[in-house]
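User: Hi! I'm working on a homework problem where we have to compare a predicted structure to a textbook description. Could you give me the structure for the chain below?
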Amino acid sequence: MEVIHFTQKQLAARWKVSEASLERWRTEGIGPQFLKLCGRVLYRLCDIENYESSCLAASTRLYRSGKTQEQNSRGGAMTSDRSDVAVMPKPN
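Assistant: Happy to help. Predicted structure tokens:
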């Protein structure tokens, strides 16, 4: 199986954020894992998709509390049936 890699520019376009935001997030430990090869930053598609999945939220209230949609559904509280919404984290 071939591993697909994204450059910083490609990931910035996918998420509609600036490359500077990705750079800042990397220094703050936010975002998907990345590779640094010969001074070049690359992101594996599988890591991007895993990170996007970890950012799913049923509501902004749950997002702010740090709970995931799965944790909320186990706790018995109201959940959303929308699984197509990805929430990108805001840097601290």
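For your comparison, note the following. Residues 5 and 44 are 4 Å apart (CA to CA). The helical segments are 8-15, 19-28, 45-54, 60-65, 69-75. Good luck with the assignment!
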